[in-house]
Write a structure and sequence with these properties.
The chain has 196 residues and is mostly helical. Helix content is 64%, strand content 8%. α3 runs antiparallel to α4, α4 runs antiparallel to α5 and α4 runs parallel beside α6. It starts with 5 loop residues before the first strand and ends with a helix.
């Protein structure tokens, strides 16, 4: 599922899609200038099915131990498999866009909060792939935050909550540390291979 919160319509101009009657389906290719559209009811059905899973994930992501469980589950596979976590981020994003369309700003902010927590699950990992997935999840969070900030109905309390969620993480330093760790590990692996 890949719902987009905006469509660029000109230089420095974007159309906020959650305010449209229908949404563009970015997963389908089109040959004309008119992209295929979906009904909001289609997204509502998908979110109703995914709702229990997303709610359990929201609760789990509020627990400090969730970070370690999610992180270890992803890393237990060789190679580490992070696609389910990126998909979870996409579902939170789609849920936020639907919540915005329905005027449920607090629920959309809850989705952004879950996205930010999901991205932090990878913080401080020693693998570059973990930092890249974190960057992808943070990008989805940025898109979600942009959409939320387009809602003129935001209250002062909601804006303060958003302000707390939008504090940037130092991903560049974490990525540099991951690169150093991977380089050292690779050097050790090659040294061991030469001896054998």
């Amino acid at each position: 599922l890949g719902v987009s919160a905006k469509k660029m319509i000109g230089p420095a101009k974007a159309l906020v899609l959650f305010r449209r009657e229908r949404m563009i389906d970015p997963s389908k290719h089109w040959t004309t200038n008119a992209p295929p559209e979906l009904e909001w009811a289609d997204l509502e059905k998908e979110m109703a099915q995914a709702g229990p899973v997303l709610q359990r994930a929201r609760i789990a992501l509020k627990q400090p131990v969730a970070f370690e469980i999610i992180h270890e589950e992803a890393r237990s596979r060789v190679p580490p498999h992070y696609e389910p976590l990126r998909n979870l981020a996409r579902w939170f994003y789609s849920s936020a866009v639907l919540n915005l369309h329905q005027g449920k700003l607090d629920a959309a902010i809850d989705d952004l909060e879950a996205l930010r927590s999901l991205g932090r699950c990878f913080r401080g990992d020693s693998l570059i792939i973990s930092e890249l997935v974190r960057h992808a999840v943070d990008g989805i969070g940025f898109e979600t935050a942009w959409a939320i900030l387009q809602a003129p109905e935001l209250t002062e309390t909601q804006l303060q909550r958003l302000d707390g969620l939008l504090i940037p993480d130092d991903i560049v330093m974490d990525l540099a540390r991951s690169a150093e760790t991977e380089r050292a590990t690779t050097q050790r692996t090659f040294a061991d291979a030469r001896r054998d």
